Amino acid sequence: xxxxxxxxxxxxxxxxxxxxxxxxxxxxxxxxxxxxxxxxxxxxxxxxxxxxxxxxxxxxxxxxxxxx
Length: 68
Hints:
Layout: H1 18-41, H2 47-65
Helix pairs in contact: 1-2
């Protein structure tokens, strides 16, 4: 709630073991969908804004920051 969404990145503590990366990504998506869903339900965001925020945190911000 205090950080600008353009500065939020998704990551995990998964290292070395591929399943840890998968599990971290799966869990991050679940948590993000729950939080954004609650914000949509509370009329703090509309569905399109929630999708945009999720895409930024899960993909777009990393592409921008790391010049991918």
